[in-house]
Please model this.
Amino acid sequence: MVEPTHLSRRRARQIAVSGQLLDAPRRTDIVPTVEALGEVQMDPTSAVARTEHLVLWSRLGSRFRVAELERLLWEERALFEYWAHILPTSDLAMHRVSMRRYPEGDASRRVYVRDWLRANDAFRRYVLRELRRRGPLRARDLENRAAMGWRTGGWNDEGQSVPMLMDILWHQGKVMIVGRDGQQRIWDLAERSLPDVAAKPPVEVARELAERDARAGAIASPDKIGFLFDGPPPARDRAIQALLAEGILVPIVVDGLRGRWVTHRELLDTAFRGRTTLLSPFDDLIADRDRTERLFDFRFRLEIYVPKAKREYGYFVLPILRGDRLVGRIDPLFDRKARVLRINAVHAEVDAKPSDWPPAKRAIDDLAAWLGADDVAWPRLPAVWR
Model:
């Protein structure tokens, strides 16, 4: 049995930041960045900017352009959208496993989806035929010919059979999102928008996923790596054990961090250079709230869905990362009409230093410039940063 490597919390934080490409220097290209991360979560909330845009801005800085991302998605097809994430097309063979297995997961939903598709086979064939003949199309461009309407007791029941069918076909890899008309997705046949690649063998997929997730997660629980969107691929546990035996994954013990943890061997030997940036509330560095609290001494909760009167910090709060420390957070809103980035509140952590503010302010100014704001409206600053 391999003895775990002992890490201080500071060194563990540095590794976590490096694994998420948030160290210095900034990255320069979108596709290699997404390939290294594995995926970038999407969310339409745009109090400042969509989360996928903020995630890429945090790593690429002002060189990141939304138009370039859209070109890579909709024209070059170097990236594609799946399960509300942006994925590299180079990983398509890996994700074919999820597509082939769908529907998976909860047994009652799996049975419902299969029964619903069986009852609506003519509807499904009509949609695919229309896309082949007329596509690309929006969901509203297609007739609702469902023989059995979608009924699961949720918000998407009433008159949502076309969008639900598109989602199912999307998860199966039969159709893909090929553009957007405002917030509406534009669909086409997957065979016209993505390369024709077969699914990789499950053993190969399990190994690639586990190794990549450990590198991006950096300080990762072995129970949370090697997952596809619909669950772990077959052979996942065997792949993790093999990577541990080969020394590619390394068991670690971190001061003050309970539980089992692993990291990628390459990250242990990487020198750390920090920088200061802002994080989307959906950023993967802070996605594991418990790990964030114990590793960074930073309690973070998403308050978008919390009533305004009950919010502690704000609606779309961006943590401030300085080096390997989370030193504070801001509550911003981009007033697009006035072209002003309004900072409703600035909060400093208890261990924040006066020297943390100048680089934090530069990061906020950089965000404003990238957004196209002409001005930043500041609130009263915390005492340590005045």
In short: The chain has a mean pLDDT of 94. The longest strand covers residues 325-335.
